[in-house]
């Protein structure tokens, strides 16, 4: 997991990177459909042909791994898709937004426009326009991210990390560096 993650953006400017994240932040918002769902982390061809949603597989979700790695004094708040007013009024140090595709295999995964499904785009807009945020994309392929890049401080392609949410946190909190590379430039549109 650590070796496959690709850093797509780090900072709204070169001089102000967001990553690695601060383990001693006072309060962190974790949001998105994929932050607490091992089935989504695993993708298709797992327990069933099309994969499963939920935590029926033994492992560590990304939010569980976040709670394990941050300071005991850091408050980690989970909200699947908070609205803008909630985000602005809570005093969060930063947000980690985990979005992506549901599990699929073969033609069931056909997506003609390759957009981020399951309300992921709305979650990014609600949070990242108001707060420093890292977006982690869980997918088996590149998806269109260009509309969201101006809003986010950092963007990471974690692909399908399987049962090891800890591998994701090892990299975003700086215990290990990013090593993943793309064989070609990430597309801007479809």
Automatic annotation (TrEMBL):
One of its GO terms (biological process) is glucan catabolic process. The keyword Ion transport does not apply. It comes from the Eukaryota. Residues 5-189 form the Glycoside hydrolase family 3 C-terminal domain. Pfam families: Glyco_hydro_3_C (PF01915). Keywords: Glycosidase, Hydrolase, Signal. One of its GO terms (molecular function) is beta-glucosidase activity. It catalyses: Hydrolysis of terminal, non-reducing beta-D-glucosyl residues with release of beta-D-glucose. The keyword Zinc-finger does not apply. Its EC number is 3.2.1.21. It is an enzyme of class 3 (hydrolase). PANTHER family: LYSOSOMAL BETA GLUCOSIDASE, PERIPLASMIC BETA-GLUCOSIDASE-RELATED. Belongs to the glycosyl hydrolase 3 family. This is beta-glucosidase.
